[in-house]
Amino acid sequence: MKRVVVTGLGVITPIGNDVETFWNSITSGKCGIGKIERFDASRLKVSLDAEVKDFEPKKYYETAQEIRKSDLFMQYAMGAARQAVDQSGILNADIDKERFGVYVGTGIGGINTTIRETNKLTEKGPDFVSPFFVPMMISNMAAGAISIKFEAKGPTLPVVTACATSTHTIGEAYRAIKHGYADVIIAGGAEASINELSMAGFVNCQALNLSEDPDEGSLPFDKRRGGFVMGEGAGMLILEEYEHAKKRGAQILAEVTGYGNTSDAYHITAPDPEGSGAIRAIKSAATEAGIGEADNLYINAHGTGTHLNDAMETKAIKAVFGERAYDIHISSTKSMTGHMMGATGAVEAIASVLALQNGIVPPTINYKEKDEECDLDYTPNKALATDLKYAMSTSLGFGGHNACIAFKKYEEKK
Fold it and tell me: Is 302 a catalytic residue?
């Protein structure tokens, strides 16, 4: 089996549109949640979201025409992918483009384009629907556009597993490289679904927090929690076969060491309250990674701030690690970014890689009231400096999808 490492990172988030800004924001506890500004939300019960600010797509495209033909989720994906590719230096190397792949997913896809073109159809008629409607709307097109842009002709696959999407893309890319099907894969996810329709749907299925105070919007593991805050953005990682990366002199940021992929087979939106699927996903990743009793571990939890998720996830971590669970460093960066849907797994994987690199556990901000069902160490309010050996990131999606990815700190052997 091949070893798989991370050689590039890229992010577009509500708390920073590059890796350095993002990392500084999450370690300082910056909150990216605020009042909805993207559209008139006066008809909705919800008033908070986590919007990307100051995004400039022209930084990542050669022409304005390319931007016009790309839904916002595709633009976010391209921005994060270009950052990751640039950091990795992969295009400067002599690589086999037929072994260079793209595993990029989205939970919802081009829904803003769908809404806009539906309005055209209703108001003006079918002749006014854009000829680019379909390629801007379909969920595979971020992966397709990135493949075209970087001439990646190897295994290319979008994944759609709701909130577990981009943890699955990373995990499946890891397996493809580990088993010899590719040398390099751009892996991640993107989402841009902040609009009245999406948010009305989530409100009506009682998933969103209806607080009007940004500091009380996303409260993972806190007894006051009442739902998640919708976010948006993209996260991308360059996964590469270890010897391939070493040969070209790449900077190795971390090693991917384990992956779990399971289903609850329980309910379309609610998690299995016993956490059986999450337990199996976390245990699979931890076992494959070889995480030992004495290893200093950080878990970037799914931690949405919904009552059912946080209690179940806590139960799952305790089921896997036993009494040791109380010594594990845990946090939910959704307390700062909101829930970025199809992008959330990749962004949280990036936070996990950076935690290993820098020896810092990001906090769960705005944590005030302990819940007896959530009694682990969630790194409340302030980042913690500690020398980590492993990091895991969990993602749990509607439909019962569970994913967990494990990383190990990379140290050059002398």
Answer: yes
